[in-house]
Amino acid sequence: MRVRIDGDVHEGRAIDLRGVDTAALVRAIRGAEAPIRVECPTPGAVHEHVARLPPSAFDRRAALADAARARGHEAETAAELETARRELAAASPPTVDVREARRRVAAAGAEEERLRERVAELRGRMQARRETGAGTTAVEAQLEAATSDLAEAETERIAAEQALDRAERAAREARDRREKRLELEDRVANLERRVREELAAAVWGAFRSAVEAVPGSATVGESPGDYDGDATTAALGVARLAPLDAPVVVESLDRVAGAAAAATTLDAPVIYVR
Predict the structure, then answer these.
(1) Roughly what angle, to the nearest 10 degrees, separates helices 60-70 and 137-202?
(2) Crossing angle of helices 231-241/259-266, nearest 10°?
(3) Can you tell me the distance from the alpha carbon of 30 to that of 8, in angstroms, rounded to the nearest whole number?
(4) Are 249 and 29 a contacting pair, CB within 8 Å?
(5) Alpha carbon distance 269, 246 (integer Å)
(6) Helix 78-89 to helix 137-202 angle, to the nearest 10 degrees?
(7) Helix (H) or strand (E) holding 261
(8) What CA–CA distance (Å, rounded) separates 51 from 249?
(9) Which end of the chain is more exposed for a tag (fewer CB within 10 A), N or C?
(10) CA 10, CA 3: separation in Å to the nearest integer?
(11) Which residues pair with 272 in a beta bridge?
(12) Neighbours of 211 (CB within 10 A)
């Protein structure tokens, strides 16, 4: 690897630096070019867990799972997980809002009722004029127009009710799909845990050997649940266990004093910052 900082160039598998921002170094390893440039292989998934030691946060099972994948292991449930993820991706329910359809039904019903009352009123007026011998021509024209409007309103109300029925069916189907999606989310989460557990178990023996080879105090039992060490010791073990090509940034870690010692201990390229 090659590290460029303000015109200075540092090369090798183990590089010692002083007074350099470790976060900037990690960003440079991941591709950022200013103010530091690090020329090295592209970091893999395991590097996300051990890019900086000691780690600010460390998920041991997730790190072990990625290390197992890097070493060529595959969980038996991996195919089942991918199928569940595809089903989950296809299970996104549409957003269905029936409020507008209900407003349309209410408006159409109110207009129909208004026109029905208007028709009834005009019929009453026309009957009264006939009884008194008054002319009905004007009232008949108004009645004919109101009757036509009422027929159109009835048609609109029926169409609105049908549209509401379709919207409510779609809403029920969307609810069913949301429930199915929640079930799939739970299934994916459970399968992800199973995959991590399987992969962690696949490299547990190698992890135990790696932890024993790094400075620190930790007891590693026979199964992934049997570990009583701290996060830093676990991260050192994962870094030694995994095939790392991109460098690990080690920040003033007393257990491994200096880049050369850290590179030997971790069996990985190291940038050591004092």
Answers:
(1) 70
(2) 70
(3) 20
(4) yes
(5) 7
(6) 160
(7) helix 259-266
(8) 6
(9) C
(10) 5
(11) 16, 250
(12) 22
DSSP-assigned letter for residue 250 = E
For residue range 196-206, list pLDDT tens digits in order. Answer: 999 999 999 99
CB 67 within 8 A of CB 242: yes
Sign of CA pseudo-dihedral 46, 52, 56, 60: positive
Among candidate residues 265, 246, 247, the one with its CA nearest the CA of residue 255: 265
For CA atoms 131, 132, 135, 140, give the dihedral sign.
negative
> Could you give the CA distance from residue 216 to residue 14 in angstroms, rounded to a whole number?
21
- The pTM (predicted TM-score) of the whole model is 0.71
What is the pLDDT confidence band of residue 90, given thresholds at 50, 70 and 90?
Answer: confident
Q: What angle do CA 168, 169, 172 make, to 5 degrees?
A: 85
Q: What token pair was written down for 176? A: 């069913």
Residue 256's φ and ψ, nearest 5 degrees, are -130, 95
Q: How many CB atoms within 10 Å of residue 57?
A: 7
Q: What is the 3-state secondary structure (H, E, C) of 75-120?
A: CCCHHHHHHHHHHHHCCCCCCCCCHHHHHHHHHHHHHHHHHHHHHH
- Is the pLDDT score of 34 beyond 90? no
> Three-class SS of residue 270?
strand
222-234 in b/e burial notation, b at 16+ Cβ within 10 A? eebeebebeebbb
Which of 50, 86, 83 shows the shortest CA–CA distance to 66? 50
pLDDT (0 to 100) of residue 39: 95
Residue 49: Cβ within 10 Å count: 23
Task: Determine the Cα–Cα distance for residues 81 and 113; give it in Å rounded to an integer.
Answer: 57
Q: How far apart are CA 29 and CA 22, in angstroms?
A: 11
